[in-house]
Design a protein that fits this description.
Chain A is of the alpha/beta class and 201 residues long. Chain A contains seven helices and six strands; from the N terminus they run αααβββαβαβαβα. Chain A has helices spanning 8-18, 25-37, 40-56, 92-100, 128-134, 150-162, 188-196, and strands spanning 57-59, 66-68, 82-89, 106-110, 141-144, 169-172. Chains A and B meet through α1, α2, α3, β2 and α4 of A and α1, α2, α3, β2 and α4 of B.
């Protein structure tokens, strides 16, 4: 029997941490050691912020980006953003990546995941219907910025089909060789796509 | 400016999580999303266990293994364990690995780290003195089970030197090729060590 079984409070902590994604079991014990060693003040700080996020942070009910409820949506409520473009992303993480490029000034729409029948996630589990409902006369372009995974591409194809009836222009990210990369280490599919989509120098 | 800067509560959560080891920044946003999506009940559960570990979990002040304070030390207070052997480990994680082999029935001593001058960790920052003080007539063997890193080996050498004056037998883990491994992928040093330490078949 694992000695964790004989330490009920430590086991409860483990149960909680096991549910946190991206804590591989090898590192989990180190993370547990970290929490076991925290002093009272740090634990209180952590608990306070966990309680505060429930109170103060919410989804924008238009684009589904996290917002400080008292401040409103950073995108939808910002008149400096181009209200005619909507960039569709799987989740908040991808939005952060795009924001960091400082090359996009339009709005966003977070789908909340990708269509993945194996995981039991269908179109109705995502904010696709809500995206379609946002397409009014003011919107001229929807940029599909899903990840280049089979699920991401299938989701992009599904959303594109749904948008077909509307007057909106649907675009997607360029595919090709990453900047700074060495062709030798790029997969064949990417290279052949980059070759097919070649541009005048 | 990163949009996190404009979400003060989310930023506070990030600050707390950034201090947790083994949360690489790439995954940090996913972990944050996990916490942002937790319901009130789950957050209360998590906060409760964090508060409880401070109250109910402590170090054994003899071997420095975590214990449920009310239950006593799983090792020192267990008369079925062989009180004449002490296995010295860097931390709790290595102890768990050794316990899982079910091949060791003696006591432990957790050093709390390794000597690492670059990180400012000297012998006095570890529980080495406390180990020396545990060496009484009842103890016949100290097994050094430090990790096979430069710091681990230096720490083992330091502890072995400290124990030289005592009557105790000092041993260490066998070094060699891991079971199930392919010689082709083992480093030269390990192979040459395994060759030098070869045993009758």
């Amino acid at each position: 029997m694992d000695i964790i079984e004989k330490l009920p409070t430590v086991k409860r902590l483990m149960r909680q941490l096991q549910q946190v994604p991206f804590l591989a079991s090898k590192n989990m014990y180190r993370v547990m050691s970290y929490f076991l060693k925290l002093d009272n003040e740090r634990i209180d700080q952590l608990c306070r912020v966990l309680q505060d996020i429930k109170k103060d942070v919410s989804f924008c009910n238009r684009c589904f980006v996290w917002q400080e409820t008292s401040l409103g949506c950073l995108f939808c409520d910002d008149s400096h953003r181009d209200q005619s473009q909507i960039c569709v992303v799987e989740s908040w993480q991808e939005l952060l990546v795009i924001e960091r490029t400082e090359g996009y000034r339009g709005l966003y729409h977070v789908l909340g995941g990708v269509i993945s029948p194996l995981d039991g996630i269908g179109p109705s589990d995502l904010y696709i219907e809500q995206l379609i409902n946002r397409i009014t006369s003011g919107v001229s372009e929807v940029i599909l910025a899903m990840n280049q995974t089979p699920e991401g591409e299938a989701t992009a194809a599904f959303v594109a089909r749904k948008l077909k009836g509307t007057a909106v222009k649907v675009s997607c990210l360029a595919k090709g060789v990453p900047i700074g990369s060495n062709l030798e280490f790029i997969d064949r599919l990417t290279v052949s796509k980059a070759l097919a989509d070649r541009k005048p120098f």
